[in-house]
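Chapter review. Work through the record for protein-L-isoaspartate(D-aspartate) O-methyltransferase before attempting the end-of-chapter questions.
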Amino acid sequence: MRRRSSNYNTGVMASSEDQLAAARTRMVRRHLRDRGIADERILAAFAATPRERFLPPEKADQAYGDFPIPIGLGQTISQPYIVAEMIQQMRPQPHHRVLDVGSGSGYQTAILARLVDHVYAVERLDALRRSAEALLKELGIDNVTFSTHDGSGGWPEHAPFDGIISGAASPDVPVSWREQLVDGGRIVLPVGPAYSQDLRVVEKRGDRWIETSVCGVRFVKLIGREAWPQDNNDRP
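Structure tokens for protein-L-isoaspartate(D-aspartate) O-methyltransferase:
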């Protein structure tokens, strides 16, 4: 039997990469633009970010479906549309400094990094934090500072933030997040009981807080002092 050449293997790899790139383009069009994500900067950030890199290798072929995918340790990577909707609701600007709580795989963090000046990413599970930090470095993204700690208390050393976004659900908006937000800033997070939440936008306007419910969602719990207490089901 004749052995296949290395050129054959290279061709297969290139074909696979081309297919993933085409799937990413379709995802941006069908699941984001056609469903109301109108900010061209956000669409471009999704188009430039390879979601398959943030998944276990055996799940790479699912990367551009519009659904959440388990990534291990009891965590998931959120569906692209919900990530895009949350980011759009936060209204990121190039000069912004943003706190990303529950950064998980780093996918949302990577997209935010293409849209703002600096992202402060907090993840309570150190294995996920280390993996995400290494991957973003590989991708050449250098405007993110990572930490492993209880994100329900925010990150006071780097406050105030122009925006705070959470990839996990809290029973209410943590007080510390309100204290660490600039005037005019926005918090975007899922709020509600463990298995069904509202995606909520909380905007600071002087001494007033404007809260808006966007849609129903289901996220993993935000574990921490100002969110959900940890129980045995939450241990990785």
